[in-house]
Every structure is written in structure tokens, then in C-alpha cells.
Amino acid sequence: MSNNLLELINETITGDVVPKLADFLGESPKNTSSALSGAIPSILAALVNKGTDTQGASDILSLLSQGSHDGSILNNLAAAFSGGEGTNKILATGATLLNSVFGYKTDDVANLVANTGGISKTSANSLLGLLMPIIFGVIGKKVKEAGITSTAGLVSLLASQSSFLKNLLPAGLSNILGIANLNDLGKKATATTAHVVVESSGGFARFLPWLLLPLLLVLGWGLFKNLKLPTPSVPEVSTPKRVAPVVEKAGDFFQTTLSSGYAIKGAKNGIEDKLIIFIQDSGKPVDGALWFSMDGITFDTDKATLTQESSVQARNIAEILKAFPKLKIKIGGYTDNTGDEKANLTLSADRANTVKKSLVVMGVDLSRLDAEGYGSEHPAASNDTPEGRQQNRRIDVNVTAK
Q1: What is the sign of the dihedral through the CA atoms of 59, 61, 62 and 66?
Q2: Mapped to the 3 state alphabet, what secondary structure does 189-208 carry?
Q3: Which residues are 371's β-sheet partners?
């Protein structure tokens, strides 16, 4: 079996898979294929980068083991990307892996993939989330077949990928990952492998610390007897408290630092502001009739693809959900009353589910989210004016548990 992971991944994403991916993302097959050519090398380069030290390689091995990434996901990818619960589970798994590999750089990589393939940032985020379990499945299968059980073995495998990835990385990825030169990265990984092998080898050096231990204990005891120890003080015992979000309002904006440390800046009386106030107010029970409008979410005309500007508010909502682990929400999609009502109902449902998928990609558990389209029902304003119709084309959020 080939050691070229890039080649193995490309072989799994066959001709019938790309159209399914494109349909799920709401993008053209041509642009989806272009985005794949940037996304796959980007993920592999990040894994090579992470695997250049023993801790990073150990983390990857743990992710492979804990997630049971043995290659079983590769058996029927076309069906896996057909939508529904199965696809949502893949997205949820991918979101966790994305966070482990890219961390806060995920958004930058998504922007890069979006620009490379000519797709929306939301689609790029979803694509990265769907690809992560596939790539981990390919690596897990290779690790199993090659009998790799040690950190050194994985570092060696990842180090060998630098030559395959050469000249295939999207422009700008090196700056995002902090990689000056991919060849140097491969050399660094090789050096790490050698270091691990030396550390794990036998010989006198392995026993030297144990031979020195008695001497160190004797010296330490002598120093301890001559020390004048201070009188111990009784520490003040305090009860741990959950840090509540701190909200500072000024003018038309407010700034919020969540207990997770994530900072939000949004419109005063916007959804973030109202949502946090409602969640923290124990006197206000969950109400199925109380909805909050997502004032920063917009879509491409007559499509269910989020505009790039929408990522800011989507990220804010995702972080609010993470900061309040009991919080559950329902996402409602709405349209104005122009056009065919059946088509409007479908579009509103697709848009609500797009927002739901974007939150899953950002790390929110699928079980905490629900989505439904209502078409032109429940208008927020009159449909008799352009301004009113604009207000009615919206996404709302209802808190179902807090």
C-alpha cells in the first residue's frame, strides 16, 4: 500500500462523491472540486506540522484511537454525504477534529479554501468538517495496516508526506500555520523521530537517573535540615464560583466576555445581547413563543448559502452555546410572501438547516440544535413594502432549554 496519504485520500473521493458533496454544500461540482484541491493538502500539512513534536504526534494517535478511525467511514462516502443524520454526525466529529488540529486558525483556513475554490466560507467550513473524518479514516487505516503503534512510527509517516505535498499548498497557508518551508518541516519531523528512537533505546544512559537518585536524596536532606522553615499559615478556603459573562455597553455596541474567555462585540439590543440577558435571567422561563432574530445573518439571493459576513454572528451564537452547556435552541427560517409558497417553505427550511450545520461545524453538539422552515408564516412586518419584505426574510432563534 502506498505511503502517499494525499494519493490515498484522493482515491477515496471518487467521481460519484464530488457531486454529492457539491449538492450538500449547495455549490457547483467544479468549484467543490477546486476547493477540495486546496482543503485536502491544507489538512495534511497541518497534521504534518502538528506531528513534528512527540506531544503532537501522541495527540494524533489518541484522536485516532478514541474516535475509532479505522477506515470504515470510507466504505460508502457517496451515501455518507447525502444529508440527514449520518452526515450531521460526520460534521459533528469533523468539528471536534478541526478544533484539535487547527484551533483558532480554523476560520483563516476556511477563508483560504473558500477563496481557492470560489465557494462560500460557510461551505468551506462544512467541507473541512466533512473531510476531517475521511482523512483521519485514511490515516487510521494506514496506521493499522503498517502496524504503527508508537509515536515515532507516526512521526515518521507524517514526515514522509512533505515531499508529496510540495507545491500543492494554497498560497497563504504557510503563513497561517507558521510554516516557513515544507521541506524544513519534513526535516524537523525526521529529527523528532530520531530523538524519540534515541530516548527509547537501551544502554547506560537509560539507567543514569536511577544511579544518581540516591546521591541527590542525600544532598537534598542535608539542605533541608539547615533550612529555617517558616511557620505555616492556614489558607483561606473559598467556594469556587462560576464566572458570569461581563457585559459592558457603550453607544450602539456592547462587549461581552463569556466565562470561556471568548469576547463578543455586537449590536446593542441585537440577538447576542438579548440572548445572554434572557439566559442569565432565572426569572424568565423558556417560552416557545419568544423568538430572537439573527440580525447579522444573510444569504445569497434565492439560495441557502450564507454570505461571508454571516460568519461573525454564527460564531458568536456558537460560542454562547458553548459557554452555556445547558442551552438548547431551535432555528426558524422565514421568507416574505412573494413567489410560490411551497418553494418559499423549502428555501426557509434549507436556510435554517444551513445555520444549524454551520453551528455544528463550529463545535456545537447536534443534540442541542433543532431547525425548521416556516415560509411566509409569522411575518415580522408588512409584506406591502420592500423594507417589510426584507425584515420577513430572516432567521430566528427560540431557546428550548437553558
Answers
A1: positive
A2: HHHHHHHHHHHHCCCHHHHH
A3: 331
Nearest residue to 246 via CA among 265, 231, 230: 265
Q: In the numeric block, which cell numbers belong to residue 15?
A: 467521481
> How many helices and strands (H and E) does the chain possess?
17, 7
Q: For residue range 24-82, list pLDDT tens digits in order.
A: 888 999 999 999 999 999 999 999 888 877 788 888 888 888 878 888 888 888 777 87
Task: Give me the domain span that covers residue 310.
Answer: 246-401
User: What is the reported pTM?
Assistant: 0.56
Contact yes or no for 156/194 (Cβ under 8 A): no
Helix (H, G, I), strand (E, B) or coil at 81: coil
Q: Do residues 253 and 194 share a domain? A: no
Task: For residue range 220-254, list pLDDT tens digits in order.
Answer: 555 445 544 444 444 443 333 333 334 333 346 77
Q: What single string gives the DSSP state of each residue in 101-143?
A: HTGGGHHHHHHHHHHHHT--HHHHHHHHHHHHHHHHHHHHHHH
Cell of 145: 495496516
> CA angle 256-331-21, nearest 5°?
105
CA atoms of 156 and 141, how far apart (whole Å) = 16
48 occurs within a structural domain: yes
Dump the DSSP string for 226-285: H--PPPP-PPPP----PPPPEEEEETTEEEEE-TTS-EEEEETTSHHHHHHHHHH-TTS-
Is a pLDDT exceeding 90 seen at residue 294?
Answer: yes
Grid look-up 523521530 returns 193
- Asked whether the CA dihedral 294, 356, 114, 109 is positive or negative, the reply is positive
Characterize the bridge pairing of strands 328-333 and 369-373.
parallel
Q: Do 355 and 261 belong together in one domain?
A: yes
- List all residues 6 or more positions away from 122 whose beta carbon is below 8 Å from its beta carbon: 305, 306, 310, 311, 314, 354, 358
Instruction: Examine the fold and report which residue of 183, 198, 213 is the final residue of a domain before the chain moves on.
Output: 198
Mark whether 390 and 267 lie in a shared domain: yes
Count of domains for the chain: 2
Q: Is 348 in contact with 373 (CB distance < 8 Å)?
A: yes
